[in-house]
Amino acid sequence: MAHEPGAPVRVALLGCGVVGSSVARLLTEHADDLAARVGAPLELVGIAVRRPQRPRPDVPVDPSLFTADAEELVTRADVVVEVIGGIDPARGLILRAMEHGAGVVSANKALVAEDGPTLFEAAARNGVDLYYEAAVAGAIPILRPVRESLAGDRVRRVMGIVNGTTNFVLDKMDVSGAGFAETVEEAQALGYAEADPTADVEGFDAAAKAAILASLAFHTRVSSAHVHREGITEVSAADIRAARENDCVVKLLAICERVTASGSDAVSVRVHPAMVPRSHPLASVREAFNAVFVEAEAAGELMFYGRGAGGDPTASAVLGDLVAVARQRVSGGHGPGESAYADLPVVDLGQAVTRYHISLDVADRPGVLAQVAAVFAEQGVSIETVRQQAGPEDDGRARLIVVTHRATDAALSATVEDLAALESVDDVVSVMRVEGA
Amino acid sequence: MAHEPGAPVRVALLGCGVVGSSVARLLTEHADDLAARVGAPLELVGIAVRRPQRPRPDVPVDPSLFTADAEELVTRADVVVEVIGGIDPARGLILRAMEHGAGVVSANKALVAEDGPTLFEAAARNGVDLYYEAAVAGAIPILRPVRESLAGDRVRRVMGIVNGTTNFVLDKMDVSGAGFAETVEEAQALGYAEADPTADVEGFDAAAKAAILASLAFHTRVSSAHVHREGITEVSAADIRAARENDCVVKLLAICERVTASGSDAVSVRVHPAMVPRSHPLASVREAFNAVFVEAEAAGELMFYGRGAGGDPTASAVLGDLVAVARQRVSGGHGPGESAYADLPVVDLGQAVTRYHISLDVADRPGVLAQVAAVFAEQGVSIETVRQQAGPEDDGRARLIVVTHRATDAALSATVEDLAALESVDDVVSVMRVEGA
């Protein structure tokens, strides 16, 4: 619908937690700049919260703007900003807002990754914009570059560190040599991990972001349910040490790849810890920072780096989207809608092609290396390097460290199973994928 | 003007050099993808070149598309892609295209930086889009993120490595210890530097990009003429060595900062070589890669990294813009136009605030350090560290290495002048700004 010249753009905010408070504050502090960039003032018409009476001294707005009636609020806005998170009631409110003609800006990775198509179809049906830059990698502009800047290119692979908590934990483990459990406690004490860190450390958060990135990069539909997910709870101090000895760091990666399956184009989307060579740009992403590495056919290698979470960084991304949606509302026209024309199948993990780094404790006697090598050969997995270390004690044991060439995950995984069953192998000490080499 | 549903979007290409050939090839190879993303097929209606008869086997298009009559070609296109470069005839052709109602995609940094306002005004007057992502940092999406993703934030500083040739030369000098002249020869032999490398090594190319970045980041008008420019021709092996000893690398930086001058907001835009600590993300940008580091009030620190030049990478950026302009043509609406509402003055270099690293050869006798320190104090420049090294020979000389705190460039520059005039100072061996600390 046409916007009346000069009239303010009415903005409704759903949620006033860490991100919502930042959005409300920046809307107030930057009002003049935002008006100049949009072409009309942004008027905050309400903030939906569970307890509207609660004092919020850090949110510099008229207290009468707080309301518990989100259902009503969304019917009187031109743009609705949703920073509640979770599936319900966020989904219902977004759909209701669109039915009433409002554009929507959301930071809700879980919802977009689980049920994006429902939202995209509603946006198209109602002729409104739906933007969600803040859902992936916080402040880092990554969805707009993938969706718009690379629209003339063909993306081959997206490989990202998209969860700050797990990167913080893995980075600390690398620096301190400590184990997973105690490092998570430290991260909790410092505010980098939630009291219940499951969504982060089990990779659910990263998997939602991977689904969103894959959908945009490959113009197809990928939901969280399609993403193979492994968290970092099994990453041990021994794994980190093995990575160091291999001149690598361990990162939790979200990997979205264009692959060929049964002769046709397909996509592979997976989240798991992996060794990354220290010389790779992703290896230098420290602490709770995020970064997304993109390989495109014409553009080559790109990387986007910045803060992946936090109130102000996430609010920056939300406001960038808000300016776009509001500007389009004022000037006419729309941003790009969902682009899912490629409609590619998602292959399962077994078909993904990767490399493995495997540490084995074996009997230190002639013939063992030949036995081990035979197992790899039987599965058709080619060995890149094998290194033998004397065991920690003079007890007739040795450590074998094998790095493979690229093979399907199915073949690699079967190889590890067969190795574990070998009589001469005491222990499979560490198995990890190697990416970015 | 409204686009007829289903009708192709007519694209005219001006120029068919390295970038133009890639654009033509990708338009052909990716035709189906591009049509799906735009919502209508892109039809290449002509390529303007100086010699249309010349065989171009690497450009897979109908040879009859080549024409020498660019003036005529631009009148029969919906979108004109300009990859000729330089000021004229590019400017006249772009203006003519807009007058005939065509949107424009340009990779022309020199033209946008020198005379952007003329182009932006023509775009606004004719109601057409003007996009130029490829003008800065090749394939790296940087203009769209700064212009759109950060539209709700306030950018404090942009600091970029935006010239691949100079980064290649400085990186090689850092690795080999060789001097400037021989390293440029090596870069020329490898195709990383032009036969006449002036535009790159004297910083003209980077200055144009700095002007464009500053204009977008600060919503104001900055042209190349406003940019303080120093190239890398004076960077010596001794400077690189001094940087190494200071745990830094030397980079040619384009720096755009929001500053306060006489109590008001202003901008400082400068291009010069500087020492950057090895721990800074920009320090790890090797060879001919580009990267742009952005500090924004809410988003915090962001970095964008990738290939800054080359046919395919630049063509990727051009095609991303082409899809945007064509999509908007098909669906209605426009991208954001020029945003120069802030209208900030550009301060001269003397008012920029930075730090200096200074190496001096001095007489090795008591009292010299006090004399040197007095010169800094007189200019109000505070010293962060001073280190004394024994001279190379046992000849009564010593080397003093001073790193300052932040001060105005005017005060720092006056300090160096006074130091050079001291009787006890034999030689000012190296003076370099330190950034990113």
TrEMBL record, chains A, B:
Its cofactor is a metal cation. It catalyses: L-homoserine + NADP(+) = L-aspartate 4-semialdehyde + NADPH + H(+); L-homoserine + NAD(+) = L-aspartate 4-semialdehyde + NADH + H(+). It comes from the Bacteria. Residues 357-433 form the ACT domain. L-homoserine binds at residue 194. Its EC number is 1.1.1.3. NADP(+) binds at residues 14-21. The keyword Oxidoreductase applies. InterPro entries: ACT-like_dom_sf, ACT_dom, Asp/hSer_DH_NAD-bd, HDH, HDH_cat, HDH_CS, NAD(P)-bd_dom_sf. Keywords: Amino-acid biosynthesis, Methionine biosynthesis, NADP, Oxidoreductase, Sodium, Threonine biosynthesis. Pfam families: ACT (PF01842), Homoserine_dh (PF00742), NAD_binding_3 (PF03447). NADPH binds at residue 109. One of its GO terms (molecular function) is homoserine dehydrogenase activity. The keyword Amino-acid biosynthesis applies. Pathway: Amino-acid biosynthesis; L-threonine biosynthesis; L-threonine from L-aspartate: step 3/5; Amino-acid biosynthesis; L-methionine biosynthesis via de novo pathway; L-homoserine from L-aspartate: step 3/3. The active site is at residue 209. GO terms for biological process: methionine biosynthetic process; threonine biosynthetic process. Belongs to the homoserine dehydrogenase family. Catalyzes the conversion of L-aspartate-beta-semialdehyde (L-Asa) to L-homoserine (L-Hse), the third step in the biosynthesis of threonine and methionine from aspartate. This is Homoserine dehydrogenase. It comes from Phycicoccus endophyticus.
